[in-house]
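Exam revision sheet. Question 4 asks you to relate a sequence to its structure. Input first:
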Amino acid sequence: MLLADSSLADNDTREFVTRVHEQFPDLAIIVAGRRDDEAQLAELVSQGIIFRFLHKPASADRIRNFVDATLRRQQRGADMPAATQRTGATSVKLKVLTMPSIKLDSAGMRRWLRRSLLLIPLVLILLALATWKPWEKIGDMMSTNDGQSTTADESRDSAVQKLLDSAGIALSRGELVEPPEQNALELYRAVLARDPDNRVAQRGIDRVVDELLAQAEKALMAQDLTALASAVDAARAARPDHPRLEFFTTQLERALERFPNSGRPPRTAAAAEAPIATPQSAPAHAPVSARSDASSVQGLVLLANERMRSNQLVGGNDSAHAYLLSARRIDPVDPGVQQGVAALAALLQSNARKAISEGRLDEAGEWVHQAVALDVNRQEVAELRSELEVARLGNVREDRARLFTLANQRIAQGHLIEPMADSARHYLDLLRASDPGYEGLPETSALLASKALAEARRLAATGASSDAEALLKAANDTGAPATEVAAVATAIARARAAASPPKPVAPVVLPESKLHRTHFVAPEYPPRALAQGTTGWVDIEFTVARDGSTHDATVRGAEPMGVFDRAALESVARWRY
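Answer key, structure tokens:
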């Protein structure tokens, strides 16, 4: 018998159980798992491959019952006689019949024998077929072919999984296109050759291309044309239709046009003839530094232009804003840098004006802030900031008018202090915090105070003292007259005093020996404790009613715990005083 836990299986439980059943068809299999595991294994349960499915969590007794049932089934199968295992076999006792004598015609018999000779070849053919049984051989051949096909499918799946694992390891190591036949790109392609619809391999190739383009971007900034060309060629081989590939191809062609004789920009003559670095030869290296700075600026400007085309203007280090500021720190007078900054400033100002017109003032403020950081078109940026402030002031006036209107509406509806975030007091508090001198605020506050006092007085008369106190506090905070507040507070205090119930008398706890017991029932010794020789005590607290009966018995202490508790409680329940 096999008891398998689906949550502990290393592989797919269905495949595991199927393979075990193929190797050991007489083995009884019990699988334990959750509801969703049962749905996946329902077919194997219906086919009898899985004898029982055990739902988790399961107690030890339940597991034991399943195991015992399985053993009983196997025992019945082993003890069953061979005669009873065959179905449809019956024993019939035939009586011997005495046939009457029949007189045969000899001439007729000869004619019948001559005709039956023609049937002999047909009978021989039938006997040969019955002996050879060609239908069984055909079935064996078909089952062999099916087994070979299944084995081939399983072998192919195993090979694909191994290739995927190897490709993932190569990708994590950065082996994108090298070494040959062991890099991530070739391994993922090998998977697609076996399984063209494999999504894992397709996503893996996309990740390889993304890494290659990231390498191309770094090579472009460093003006390393050899690395740039290698990365671009590899990315083109993997994904020739990638949208970013055209940009890097164009930049590579332009760089090769400037430096047609080498994969890297040639050094100047002064740099080539300079001796090994010494304090006297330091000026000879200045052209190399200048060339490096110029290359870095050019790479940053190219990246900034690409980000502007993809509308990635601001946000983090990978934006047009960040690249242009970095390039300007290196060479602020470079024409490409100045053109890029002017173009980015125009885009930022356009986005800010659009956000202002659509009422998205926080977003507009962020665009204006980024435009100020560029420090260009100062007059236009100043006008843009002025437009933003005007829009904000207009929104503030609209917000205050809306708060004033909502406060008056809630007073008319009777929502004075509730609900907390949609009441007259809530909106008046917001308006007072925004503009204490707002026109009409004192009159509306006085109206709220008057309504709150009247409602508090009504609630106090009905006995709802807590609600009346809340309204009285709101009236006092809003500026209600002190004399009226004091009068309502007095009414609330009187109502609370009239409605307060007498304090309950605490029950007296006495030792049981102080009472006179009229009926006693001894507790029954638990059989298990008696057999084990266990002794102990139980401390019980209970209530004696007026009729002498006991109620509310509670165990306050016991030694050992849980052994004599039930017997003691049952005994006390039958005592009388």
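Marking note for examiners. The CA atoms of residues 77 and 85 lie 9 Å apart.
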